[in-house]
Input
Amino acid sequence: DIQMTQSPSSLSASVGDRVTITCRASHNINSYLNWYQQKPGQAPKLLIYAASSLLSGVPSRFSGGGYGTDFTVTISSLQPEDFATYYCQQGHSTPLTFGGGTKVEIK
Amino acid sequence: EAQLLESGGGLVQPGGSLRLSCAASGFSFSSFAMSWVRQAPGRGLEWVSSITGSGGGTYYADSVKGRFTISRDNPKNTLYLQMNSLGAEDTAVYYCAKEDDGYGGNVFDFWGQGILVAVSS
Output
């Protein structure tokens, strides 16, 4: 099974800050890495697929990168609506696995 | 616009069974694989099971293999999850999710609102 490790597990930041979340896969997953945003009481929403492609409608302040085993998602200027939990997910092979999540909180 | 609406959740005793349903609309249901993903209270996301568009291929997490069965009725645009021998560890919000391999690999591009399954005596 491919293990996905996210860091940090939580962070505190201010509006306007640049924030980067890291996701590491235990095996090479090429670019089959997706990022989701989940707000309290809501279902997750797809933000980024194939490591770096933004889903239509996702603000351009979000960006993704990486290949193989190491990936990042960056929010260039944190907005109030971005405070949420972010999950990475490998779409390379079953069992499909998620990272443990990164909770982005208001400082 | 795609819509996914889960139903069938609730409180069940340990060892009991429950069947979840997910009614889909707004997209060509039979053209896409579908999955169930769960989230225990205060915890992260866990993939449970997937089924191909035709229903001919099914996949399970080890934690549910042999106890859960995923199926679909394409004419009815409905996805199911039959859950047997439930234990406390199965307590979670269960999400129905549409997969789209057009993005590259297995991508959950749309999710239902989730349904709570609570296993307790």
Remarks:
- The two ends of chain B are 40 Å apart (CA to CA).
- Chain B is about 0% helix and 50% strand.
